[in-house]
Amino acid sequence: MLQVNCDEKIIGIEKWIFRFLCGYALFSSISIAGGNVFLGLAVAAGLVRLYKKHDDWRELLTIDKALSGPFFLMVGVFLLVSIFSTDIVHSGNVLFNHYVNRLMPFLLVVMFVREKKQLIWLVLLAGASMLINNLACIIQWNVIGGEYVKEQRTPGFIGTMMTAGFNSMWLPVLFLLGAKTEGKWKYCVWMAMLIAVIGTVYNNTRGAWLAITITMAVTLFLYAKSKVKALAFLLVLALGVGVVVHNVDWMADRVTSIVNPTSNSSSNERLILWESARNMVADYPLTGVGYGGFEKNYQEKYILPEARYRELGHAHNNFYNVLAETGYPGAIALCIWWLGTVVYGLNGWRKKKNIAYLLMLAVFLGIMLQGVTEYTMGDSIVMKFFWFAMGSCVQWLRLTEE
């Protein structure tokens, strides 16, 4: 009787963890504070569950080593080189925040979401959150207007670059789901994608546009049975987008600035930042300035005279930021993680044809390609959702393949 009561309590706690995760998913794209409240409650409930029953934690946390190995290698290198940081305490705090705190959504989903139905609910609620944020972008541009149109950027509820980060993951995922689903759900997915596309256009983040375009092309080509038809579809789509861009002046100006970065102040500023990052690693090739140390070192020593935005705190690029902060060892480890995750998704799809492998690849490529022009790995709300999405893909694989 005691064992039965204990099991019932564990099941009850896990139901509350799921409910709190539902709250996080619903607020994920529309409120940083709201998302953090529900995520904090989920973590607290998870700790209570592990306190009451912890003999199964290894089984719950079983992750394919081909996926987890490159990641842990990267984090290990970051820890090692940060022993020599210019501010070791700060580096330790940032590392804990990036690779413990922000990893909580992944751990909670993998350990405590037991059923496919629960995963579907989490995805639906997160998708609703994304749509609400993109509807806000559309309203900001078309209804409120004013400074939003003047600045040609709409932030939604969470900020311009954060909205771009979410859409860089969501649009390729919706594209794949639209191709995969049947019946009325297909129309729902395509309608959601249309709203997200319009919101992304008004958000007007060039790095996100490029990341979404490349990721959608790659994942669709992999998914399609007929590569010739996929290529033809992509060419027609590119032609249609080109016609629209050519006839909308502000969009044409933004696209032109991609291929001519020195003509745009924000693009040129990124080139200046990357030069400063190279100067940092030239002085600290084996260790970098320390994880999380870019801002202080940039503003106090490495900022170039021609820099216009002198308050910036990161390199606006994942690779250059990691290179500056962790030196060549950290940059190499980062590339190993990237390559390992991409290969894992590609091999999984090739061997098993489980859509979750491609969805994982879409999420990963979307956020990391946007990281060519933004330090997405340093953005808290974006990376928490990234780990939530990756955890959902991993758990779907476990539930379907087992």
Characteristic key phrases:
single chain; 402 residues; mainly alpha; 0% strand; disordered N terminus
Query: Outline, from the CA principal axes?
Result: globular
Compute the number of strand runs: 0
Order of helices and strands: HHHHHHHHHHHHHHHHHH
Helix content: over 70%
Mean pLDDT: 93
- N-end to C-end Cα span: 31 Å
Content-based structural category? mainly alpha
Radius of gyration: 22 Å
The biggest beta sheet is recorded as: none
Low-confidence runs: 1-5
Task: Figure out the total of helices.
Answer: 18
What fraction of the residues are assigned to beta strands by DSSP?
under 5%
Description:
The chain has 402 residues and is mainly alpha-helical. It has helices at 2-27, 32-52, 57-60, 65-81, 88-101, 104-112, 116-144, 147-151, 160-180, 184-203, 206-223, 227-247, 249-259, 265-283, 294-302, 318-352, 355-370, 380-401. The two termini are 31 Å apart. Mean pLDDT is 93; it is low at 1-5.
